[in-house]
Model the fold of this input.
Amino acid sequence: MNPLQKREISTLARHIKQAQRIVIFSHVNPDGDSVGSCLGMYLYLQGKGKAAQVIIPNHILDFLKWVPGADRIIIGKENPEEAARLIVEADLIFYLDFNEIDRLEQLAEYPQKNRKAFHVVIDHHPGPKIEADLLFSDITVSSTAEIIFKILQNLDPGKEMDQDIATALFAGIMTDTGCFRYNASNSDTWEAVSELMKSGIDYDDIYSRIYDNYSEHRMRLMGYALDKKMVILPELHTGYIWLTKEELIKYHYVIGDTEGFVNLPLSVRGIRFSALFLEQGKKIKISFRSKGSFAVNKFSSAYFNGGGHLNAAGGECYENMKDTLLRFEKLARDFSDEI
Done:
């Protein structure tokens, strides 16, 4: 930790000690890093005797409901009045794994009204925009869960981490690195994982609960996507998968079923840029992944109203599927020298 970070840790420790009511926010449609980070922080604060509450705007994916503490999460859409009350009464508010207030969707108005609270952003995405009193932002780390791990280490130096906390944070790091396939080249990540393992977490069990926990419908949807809906453009080192509303309905799609699909074309020899297009309502939801130096966050921001990391980003398009795919292929040709 550099001196500035040490001052930030000291400031955070003071506000945790003083806080009586704490809210921990995840973003809408939370992934494993968001859920793991929130629950890791929640369990730490619970261990300090603090009244803390994790609030997620809309839902938690089925394969993350086993993470310690997940049964105590409040879902904003299901309990809007309780969520609103907790937010306006909080004196300490955490925003974990996101940095734009609109990612709270229907809950976004409440923390902005509560200016008596101390607001803390902890995130690894570029360009933080939330007006926070304290910011922990590092785009070089694997995940927000890794930042949380470092913060907790510095809040309680020398103390062995609780196994449930370690399990939540390990799940966050593992999912945001695709089981250590990307964003995991920094030795600090492996040192963090090594320390988490020392707490006695069960790696095999965590892996199985996350990656061996899909429905039959999801597996058949993946088979269909690979067989019928994957497009490979070898001359552009690009591949993509596209699925319509009707196809998703046919395979009994639920949120989370396409998790990881965007990575599938990258397993094809020579493919360095991949995308997943899902028809959702009046828009096309898009995920991007890349290998190497092609910055999909900049690509998504410039052309598909999105953003994210160097090798992992998201976006959206309000054209129909056919026009969206044509646009994407044209852009891939325009950027072929960079991919």
Notes: The longest strand covers residues 273-280.
